[in-house]
Specification:
mainly alpha, 8 helices, flat, 60% helix, single chain
């Protein structure tokens, strides 16, 4: 890795480009994004409350909110495709739990290594899904309900939750003629 250029050239990059802001989204896109998120997160919340919470098992984690943004708000994004959704959460959950198991006495180390290693492993496995970084981090925060799961965290919630979100994405994103999901499975 070679670093070139002056400090001035480096700081100049911070300005960004002159490309302008993001494009406006048609109201139909807003509607279908909203419907998908309501149904996807709503189904996860309902199933979690009805079937998992009574057994002290979490089905909902914060990173699923970010997955919903990608799946329902940007379904054509490479980061929203099924391989990335499922693989990103599962790979990251494994890394997060492993880091916590090894470094739980040093939470700062566990957290930093979990996120950084999850990013690296998602790159290497071609499963980059930004919410996966949060899935890895959540495993290292020391929450008793997550800590109690240990490596079961990989299956539930990190695998089951995204599978439910994926099912809703398949159903909702293919209803309007203007949307299609997925772009690619693998």
């Amino acid at each position: 890795m070679k670093i070139e250029g002056s400090l001035f050239e480096y700081l100049k990059k911070w300005r960004g480009t002159t490309a302008g802001g993001p494009p406006r989204v048609h109201s139909d896109e807003v509607f279908w994004s909203w419907i998908g998120a309501v149904l996807g997160i709503g189904l996860l919340a309902w199933l979690g409350t009805r079937y998992f919470t009574p057994h002290e098992l979490p089905l909902m984690i914060g990173s699923f909110g970010a997955s919903a943004v990608l799946l329902y708000g940007a379904p054509r994004s490479p980061l929203a495709q099924p391989r990335n959704l499922i693989g990103g959460h599962v790979v990251s959950a494994f890394i997060g739990v492993a880091c916590w198991q090894v470094f739980h006495d040093f939470p700062v180390v566990a957290q930093a290594l979990a996120v950084a290693t999850a990013i690296a492993m998602m790159h290497l496995t071609r499963t980059l899904h930004p919410p996966g970084g949060a899935t890895a981090l959540i495993a290292t925060l020391g929450a008793p309900e997550i800590e109690r799961l240990g490596f079961w965290y990989i299956l539930m919630p990190a695998l089951l939750g995204p599978l439910i979100l994926l099912l809703v994405a398949l159903l909702v994103n293919n209803l309007p003629r203007t949307r299609r999901y997925p772009e690619i499975w693998f």
